[in-house]
Amino acid sequence: MSRNDIAISTAFLVALAATLGALFIGEILGQMPCTLCWYQRISMFPLVPVLAISLWRGDGLARLYGLPLALAGLVLSGWHSGLYAGLIPQSIAPCTKDGPSCTDQAQTILNLPIPYLAFAAFAAVLACLILSKGKRP
To answer: How many domains would you assign to the chain?
Structure first.
């Protein structure tokens, strides 16, 4: 495997784990995602087929299509993490007061807050995509 293949494979595995984790939280644990979680899912879920197809074809286009999705997700999860940490005021949070919220202290997996996990996943995917060559064959 080339360095490019390793980077894209790692990005794919991180995106797949994040996608399966989000589906597990929602479908198995029954936790309804908040608005920011939905937006982050919109950025994360398409990364799985984009990265898989790029690996399968070996065309190096994962960087072209994956970078905007990973960057959008990183920004959203950064904002979400800021809300969770209390750095951003709750008055500008898109989550409703009586709807689901990932910013309360009960929303953790393995004692790690969901917004922080999402931020780490997007940062890892983005780093892998930046490290890949991103050249067409």
So the answer is: 1
